[in-house]
Amino acid sequence: MFYYGVSIDRGCMKAAVFQGVEEPLEIQDVEEPTADEDQVVVETEACGICRSDWHAWKGDWGHIGVVPTEGLIFGHEPAGRVVEVGDNVERFREGDMVTVPFNLSDGTCQHCRDGRGNICDRMVPLGFLGMAPGAFAERFPVREADHNVVKLPDDVDPVNVAGLGCRFATAFHGLVSRVDVTPGDWVAVHGCGGVGLSAVHIADALGANVIAVDIKDEQLWAAEELGADEIINATDVKDAAQAVKAHTDSSQGVDVAVDALGVAETCKAAINSLGKAGQHLQIGLTTGENDGNVELPVDNMVMDEREFYGSFGMPPNEYDQIFRMMSRGKIDPGQIVTETVSLEEVPDVIGNMGNYETVGIPVCNEF
Ligand SMILES: [Zn+2]
Ligand SMILES: [Zn+2]
């Protein structure tokens, strides 16, 4: 018998399985995976539930090649224990506690060799395509394990690591490795869902003055708790970008603006809140409505020499920076985890994300 090209001679496990666009995921018994020679199999202890799951479930991301097929197991923000190790895998053994960045690389292309495995030429996203079944399951396999699996320090809680998920990691990679945030810089975060709150927390830890913008007071209060110095409810002001600028020195605009939602409105508000030589960091991908395209004030960007950066997940080699900051309490992804649920509850949590009522990051920790 075969399972995603891997031979199977085992029992069954529970998993949350895709049934079709906007059809509730179903909890089903499926065959357990085994590790081929370059893989490990991880027993899931926790997995974050993410707006990206919702986007994929809605069929939003055909324009970037994410077209889930029936039978796919979702889940791309895992922490767990290695339970099986392929013959060629050198860096891991059974019992290791690990996490896995969602953008699985091949480890061999030019970008992987440059330490940028997150933009691998042959990247396969975990839990979005059938060839890489995800972690809303008792176990999941990881391709090219030596390149893609990240060993956890001894003292971290799997739920907090799942809270790192793609959101915290993408925000960290963006703010630490893509743009330049120096202490005292003004950083505006537009959109305070899971990734936005992560960006607020990280920018604060880096010593920035942080302005958080959202349309919901609950998200803004959470942003304040995580270190935002100023909060702006965009529904209370005529122009969110101008309201942001008003908080900065001589209303010049911010040094770094983050679009942490990925709709045309927040992307443009972020870019318009920048001062001269400011840097825009795009974390959110757009929805099906925008289809990957947003109109930008190009001439102003040119004349002000503003810069546009993308951040897409985080390469495995950058996780140690997060763990070192976690170990000294400088950052705490667990603060953004607001809810823990069982596998049986995952379909509803994803299905209800359309009403934008989730504050922070829900994590599944019961399989
Ligand atoms: Zn590669
Ligand atoms: Zn995610």
From TrEMBL:
Q: Which UniProt keywords apply?
A: Metal-binding, Oxidoreductase, Zinc
User: Could you tell me the superkingdom of the organism this chain comes from?
Assistant: Archaea
What cofactor is this protein dependent on?
Answer: Zn(2+)
GO molecular function term, any single one: oxidoreductase activity, acting on the CH-OH group of donors, NAD or NADP as acceptor
Enoyl reductase (ER) domain location: 20-361
Q: Is Zinc included in the keywords of this UniProt record?
A: yes
Q: Which InterPro entries match?
A: ADH-like_C, ADH-like_N, ADH_Zn_CS, ER, GroES-like_sf, NAD(P)-bd_dom_sf, Zn_alcohol_dh
A biological process (GO) of this protein is: small molecule metabolic process
* CDD domains, per the entry: Zn_ADH6 (cd08260)
Which family does the record claim for this protein? Belongs to the zinc-containing alcohol dehydrogenase family.
Tell me what this protein is called: Alcohol dehydrogenase
Native organism is Halorientalis persicus
